[in-house]
Write a structure and sequence with these properties.
Layout: H1 7-22, H2 26-40, H3 46-62, E1 74-77, H4 87-104, E2 111-116, H5 122-135, E3 139-142, H6 149-158, E4 163-167, E5 176-183, E6 195-196, H7 201-210, E7 226-227, H8 231-241, E8 253-256, H9 263-272, E9 278-280, H10 306-315, E10 319-323, E11 330-335, H11 337-342, H12 351-354, E12 356-358, H13 361-375, E13 380-384, H14 390-397, E14 401-405, H15 409-412, E15 418-423, E16 427-429, H16 440-456, H17 461-472, E17 474-483, H18 489-499, E18 504-505, E19 508-515, E20 529-533, E21 538-543, E22 549-558, H19 566-591
Parallel strand pairs: 2-3, 2-4, 3-7, 8-9, 8-10, 13-14, 13-15
Antiparallel strand pairs: 1-5, 4-5, 5-6, 10-11, 11-12, 15-16, 17-22, 18-19, 19-20, 20-21, 21-22
Helix pairs in contact: 1-2, 2-3, 4-5, 4-7, 8-9, 9-16, 13-14, 13-16
């Protein structure tokens, strides 16, 4: 028995039918057909009508708009509809990019390089893009297989291409895929050459995408693009290895690519650089788009690196390195004697008892920032506004420039005279001359080299972090996230916080409330709020650009004596964590979570 639909819902069903008629992919055509059938022909039971109502809500969301370029390109669930990732959306995106390039390079032949990871439909999306762009008159080069995002970003510069496309959803859930766009060659000059798109390029490309009315009528070549050989990958590996310095290599490292495409490349880079004691997490080594051993393939998520830590305990390793699925991020875990001392009651062979903990992204950012700054005669360090203020102090101590940017590497990588950049979400750029983006592979190499040298000196990464605290004060950072299934609650939460920000945080008066949507410190406007307290605590709240979350970035400062002992510094850290816990509780209350 069919249910009655209002005029708006009838139009929605007609839009869905038009989509089906234009969709080149059988899987998504059938998926959308089944959804329409559930809506139009429910059985006369409350359960069936409930399914029909849910299906209607699903359809409305799929057709509520079109995917837009966000913090890291296009991302969405692999499903039918304009607000999802599918072959139709990709074909239109590629056509829009082709039109943009032809407009930007009149009378010239654009050069485009395309890469892809091992997620569902990644190769199909890459080949669709190659077919569309070839038909649009571009010279197209496709990487020889599923490879990390940094290899694509490197290939863009190495081949002097005008544009690069990477099909990946990075650390998103298995059901998602995505599409990153880079510009270089003759299209962009200066500090943005080789970086991901920012305004006005994203808007210009979006305008051309919107002009593509029919997928089936969009020209697609059957051949004519070039599948690159493995020499580009080998050149990338060799150039990254060249970043290393002679020194100790006595270091046992556990590696995991979290079912992504970075395993073999990271292994090769570290082995070529002289690291021979490498233990890979076998259960997570081969690329698998279903990510079976983790609930969420993001090293930041609780439990994601548990298997690697178990390997480290069993093998008595010195270091754990985890890359996200497209290997542009790098997570680092080390033994921390403070953790071991606090977990004496934990099971004897547990990672906590052994003192293992994952470093925060700001800690790794400080380590790498200090490493690069010590070797740089000039240039600038940069990080996002939500990352720690410690990097600015490191830059000042070394006489280098410093820039604070909007969130996302498309902004960080554009910092003038950049020699190092990072964001707290485990993204690091240690060699912008090679990759104008975050690169979890080159970062892994530098971390390993630093850890090996410290071990040879009878010290550790924890000692190195303590030294930075003695020199610049303790900068403790943490993050709080509120995940929403109803996306309308995200702007509502931001509006509520703007209307009634907390008056105190951990007992310290809030002295400054800055709405980042007004544009501050010379940065473009962005949706966010910055709070600063009398004791220097800083909190920034913003909606995520890649996930249905509102994120809260917190930083607590504490003075440290230059000659503070390990025990004295431990007391400072304990006190700072207690303050952070109170800040966290205060912000959870303010966000209503």
């Amino acid at each position: 028995m069919a249910i009655e639909l209002n005029e708006e819902e009838q139009i929605l069903l007609e839009d869905a039918r038009r989509w089906i008629a234009d969709d080149p992919e059988k899987v998504t055509r059938e998926e959308l057909t089944r959804l329409i059938k559930v809506i139009e022909n429910p059985e006369n039971t409350s359960e069936s009508k409930g399914r029909s109502s849910a299906a209607l809500g699903d359809l409305k969301d799929r057709f509520s708009g079109t995917l837009q370029f966000g913090t890291a390109g296009l991302r969405g669930a692999i499903e039918a509809g304009p607000n999802r990732m599918n072959r139709s959306v990709v074909i239109k995106a590629a056509a829009g990019i082709g039109a943009f390039l032809n407009e930007a390079l009149p009378g010239q032949t654009p050069k485009v390089v395309i890469g892809y990871d091992a997620r569902h439909f990644s190769r199909a999306f890459a080949l669709d893009s190659a077919a569309v762009l070839t038909a649009a008159g571009a010279d197209v080069f496709v990487l020889p297989g599923a490879l990390p995002t940094p290899v694509l970003a490197f290939a863009l510069k190495h081949l002097d291409a005008d544009a690069g496309i990477m099909v990946t959803a990075s650390h998103n859930p298995p059901k998602d895929n995505g599409y990153k766009v880079y510009l270089g060659g003759r299209v962009v000059e200066g500090d943005g050459k080789g970086a991901q798109i920012v305004p006005p390029y994203d808007g210009q490309i979006a305008r051309h995408i919107a002009a593509v009315h029919s997928v089936r009528e969009t020209p697609r070549a059957h051949d004519g693009w070039t599948i690159l050989g493995h020499d580009v990958l080998e050149t990338y590996v060799n150039d990254v290895v060249a970043l290393s310095e002679p020194g100790p290599r006595d270091l046992s490292i556990v590696l995991t690519p979290l079912h992504g495409v970075g395993g073999a490349v990271v292994d090769k880079v570290l082995a070529h650089a002289g690291f021979s004691e490498l233990m890979s997490v076998e259960e997570q080594y081969e690329p698998d788009p279903d990510f079976p051993t983790v609930s969420f393939p993001n090293p930041e998520e609780p439990g994601a690196i548990d298997l690697a830590l178990e390997y480290a305990v069993r093998g008595n390793a010195d270091l754990v390195i985890a890359n996200d699925p497209d290997a542009d991020r790098c997570a680092v875990a080390v033994k921390d004697p403070r953790i071991a001392a606090a977990n004496t009651e934990a099971p004897a062979k547990s990672p906590a008892r052994a003192g293992w903990r994952m470093l925060h992204g700001d800690e790794v950012g400080a380590l790498l920032g200090e490493y690069v700054a010590e070797r740089a005669d000039e240039g600038a360090l940069a990080n996002s506004i939500v990352s720690s203020r410690l990097l600015s102090r490191i830059a000042e101590a070394h006489g280098l420039g410093y820039a604070s940017t909007l969130t996302g590497f498309k902004w960080i990588s554009r910092a003038p005279n950049l020699v190092f950049g990072y964001e707290e979400a485990l993204g690091y750029c240690v060699a912008p001359e090679l990759v104008r983006d975050k690169d979890g592979i080159s970062a892994a190499l530098i971390v390993a080299q630093l850890a090996a040298q410290l071990k040879a000196d009878g010290r550790s990464i924890i000692d190195y972090l303590d030294d930075l605290a003695r020199q610049h004060g303790l900068h403790l950072t943490d993050q709080l996230s509120a995940r929403f299934s109803d996306l309308s609650q995200i702007p509502a939460t931001m509006a509520r916080l703007r209307g009634a920000p907390p008056a105190t945080l951990a007992g310290s008066a809030v002295t400054q409330v800055v709405d980042l949507s007004d544009g501050v410190d010379g940065l473009p406007p962005t949706d966010g709020l910055r709070l600063l307290t009398e004791d220097g605590t800083r909190v920034i709240v913003r909606p995520s650009g890649t996930e249905p979350k509102v994120k809260c970035y917190m930083e607590v400062l504490a003075d440290v004596e230059p000659d503070a002992s390990f025990d004295a510094l431990t007391e400072v850290r304990v006190s700072a964590r207690e303050r952070m816990q109170q800040v966290r509780a205060d912000m959870a209350g303010a966000l209503g979570i």
